[in-house]
Design a protein that fits this description.
About 65% of the residues lie in helices and about 0% in strands. The protein is an all-alpha fold and about 190 residues long.
Length: about 190
Amino acid sequence: MPAPWLDVFLWALVATTSLYVGMAVFTSRQRFPRRVYMAAGVLASLGYVGPRALIPFLPQPRLGLPDGLALAGGLVVLAAGVGIMARVVVRLRAAGQGGDGPVLDDGLFGLVRHPMYLGDVLWPLGLGVMLDAAYAVALVPLWWLLRACLTVLEEERLIDKHGEAYRAYQARVPRRVLPLPGRRSA
């Protein structure tokens, strides 16, 4: 039996739990002391990102892709995910989203309402493909589902903050995370 710390699904559980504990604090309507927000941010960042970065390196079945295709395709998807996240951070900072900035609806925000989460779903997919790791790729729908569910909570706060401006944005940009055709939020 392999060592427990080499179990892909243990780390998936750690990632899932960390994200939900962190997001429970951030999406709560209760006001917490700054140190609680800081601890939740560290937990959500390290506890969610760290295990997902580790999972493709753990022992697991291979996808069976040719090495060159896995490396090139995975690298493109990984770079797209990280690039999207970096672009969103730059855009949010430029717009002053720490305060009472406007609802952003241009660029990536015109494609999906939560482009940061789109990038956050793409990079582990790219890493899993790049390392030819079957379980890592199989867990990507879970990462998408977790983020998609959390958008519901996050959007309650955004409606409280921006009111009708955010509701109008929801109508203009129906997709939450994945930029797929259709009217229903995803």
